[in-house]
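Recall that a protein's primary structure is simply its ordered list of amino acids. Everything else, from secondary elements to tertiary packing, is in principle encoded there. The following example makes that idea concrete.
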Amino acid sequence: MSDSEKIVSLKNARNKQPKETKKELSNQTNELVYCSFCGRPNTQVVKMVQGPGVNICSECTMIAVQYLILEDKLPSSEAQKILDIFWSKIK
């Protein structure tokens, strides 16, 4: 997976601006993007989601999802399978 495929940008998701061309997107993603939560760059994570003024990597996203699921103390078997698959793939 190339670095340009590792970043999903939601910066203008709320705006009704025309979609950027693939070339413009690849130019934007050649730069380092850091997770606002853990500080890792996009080169060290599976995926990075960019929002307006904030970025979150896939690992921090899964930690947040895991927290929300486990907060009820009884995760469903399907939710637990998803968590197990994710954490086994990034090790």
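The longest helix spans residues 77-90. Residues 4 and 29 are 5 Å apart (CA to CA).
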